[in-house]
Structure to design on (481 residues):
């Protein structure tokens, strides 16, 4: 992976301590305070050549020093990004904090639903979900606002990759910026956008045509390929959360007279027949459940609270109390028919990716960045922060970032395992390998067949029968060069 070399070139000998701390985090899976016990029970320190202990006072001083090493951290990110050759996935999540962290902890959209202040973490991963870079933002910063800064940083690093995002980042202002910036990207469009609705309506009339059929990963789609253009709005209107359009800009299709003067990108309008059936069944069941809930309520309360009860599904209902004081619920046929006809449809926008198969392959990696966030929060104890110091918090996050690289690399290797063995199970199995020190020599226990198989799969040589460790035997290759 070149990780130890990158850490050494970025942080000097502190790079080895970072790596050892990250390995301990992967092995323990608990808070950073568990690193000391883990290091006392394994040979990581001896193998790397670290004599110092990993007790709490030293780790506190170390994490603060690492959090303050901005230039070294930037060097590490540049090196990790330079190793990525095809595509990068970007997303943001929130982590809860018990303190204000000197202004970094703020109220915002807490994705875990906790009533706590939060900080935001932006994570860039490769197509396997292995992290390459992170950024820390105050908790009130919106997803959309972080993308432009990340794109600028990646351009400064000469990252020749396609950025893959989810629809939350796809405001027209962001897309226009990415096109101007020369950034290749893939992102889904929001269904509430006028341009997206027009594209879906066109596909709805033609879906089923043999010439539009495409196959990807064993799934059949009907695909309409078009170009759209980003132009100034004719009439200024308020922004809509369910639309890519903004107050100033909007997307138009080729039948608009402004099309030629705008910033263009590719649109892939896709229809999945199987997903259409599933979406329509889900819609009918959801509407039926909402009706049952409304009918069980006081009629006047049901009319008053329909938006709260039905949420985005309120648009499908007309709800009133008749002259007899009874609740009357009617479904809006036009709204239902419109949704039913467009079930299973989605629109993907891209710039720099012109082929449908290439676009789909790019977007497939989106799921892995979500899995990386899940590991960070749950397996590596990154869900809540307990330090009031933002510098120390960044240093701790750096250790968890390196641990996440190790974890996700293992996860990628295990992804094709037929048994879908979790990373935790593999680590627990390998933890059976022990060593005893006698007269300065470490004697290693027998390695089971199962663990030999794991090591062979990872391309890792079996441990020697014994080790006699000498200073500088296990330094990074870069240091030797």
């Amino acid at each position: 992976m070149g990780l130890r070399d990158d850490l050494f070139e970025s942080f000097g000998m502190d790079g080895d301590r970072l790596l050892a701390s990250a390995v301990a985090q992967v092995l323990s899976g608990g808070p950073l305070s568990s690193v000391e016990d883990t290091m006392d029970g394994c040979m990581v320190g001896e193998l790397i050549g670290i004599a110092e202990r990993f007790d709490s006072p030293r780790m506190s001083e170390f994490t603060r020093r690492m959090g303050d090493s901005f230039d070294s951290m930037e060097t590490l990110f540049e090196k990790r990004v330079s190793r990525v050759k095809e595509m990068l996935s970007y997303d943001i999540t929130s982590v809860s904090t018990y303190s204000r962290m000197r202004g970094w902890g703020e109220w915002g959209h807490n994705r875990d639903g906790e009533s706590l202040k939060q900080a935001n973490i932006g994570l860039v991963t490769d197509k396997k979900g292995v992290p390459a870079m992170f950024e820390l933002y105050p908790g009130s910063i919106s997803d959309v606002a972080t993308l432009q800064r990340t794109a600028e940083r990646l351009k400064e690093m000469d990252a020749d990759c396609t950025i893959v995002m989810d629809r939350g980042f796809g405001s027209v202002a962001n897309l226009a910026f990415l096109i101007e910036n020369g950034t290749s990207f893939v992102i889904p469009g929001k269904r509430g956008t006028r341009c997206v609705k027009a594209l879906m309506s066109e596909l709805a009339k033609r879906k089923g045509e043999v010439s539009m059929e495409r196959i990807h990963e064993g799934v059949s789609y009907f695909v309409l390929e078009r170009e759209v253009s980003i132009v100034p709005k004719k009439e200024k209107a308020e922004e809509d959360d369910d639309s890519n359009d903004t107050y100033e800009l909007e997307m138009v299709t080729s039948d608009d007279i402004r099309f030629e003067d705008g910033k263009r990108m590719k649109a892939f309008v896709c229809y999945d027949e199987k997903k259409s059936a599933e979406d329509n069944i889900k819609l009918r069941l959801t509407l039926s459940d909402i009706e049952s809930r409304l009918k069980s309520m006081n009629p006047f309360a049901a009319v008053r609270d329909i938006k709260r009860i039905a949420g985005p599904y309120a648009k499908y209902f007309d709800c009133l109390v008749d002259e007899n004081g009874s609740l009357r619920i009617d479904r809006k046929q036009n709204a239902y028919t419109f949704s039913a006809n467009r079930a299973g449809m989605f629109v993907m926008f891209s710039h720099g990716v012109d082929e449908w198969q290439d676009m789909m392959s790019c977007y497939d990696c989106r799921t892995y960045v979500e899995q990386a966030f899940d590991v960070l929060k749950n397996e590596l104890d990154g869900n809540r922060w307990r330090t009031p110091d933002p510098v120390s918090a960044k240093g701790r996050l750096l250790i968890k970032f390196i641990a996440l690289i190790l974890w996700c690399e293992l996860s990628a290797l295990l992804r094709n395992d037929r048994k879908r063995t979790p990373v935790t199970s593999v680590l627990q199995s390998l933890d059976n390998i022990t060593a005893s020190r006698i007269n300065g020599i470490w004697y290693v226990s027998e390695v089971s067949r199962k663990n030999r198989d794991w090591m062979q799969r990872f391309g890792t040589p079996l441990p020697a029968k014994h080790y006699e460790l000498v200073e500088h035997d296990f330094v990074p290759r870069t240091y030797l060069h």
The first helix runs from residue 3 to 11. The mean pLDDT is 86.
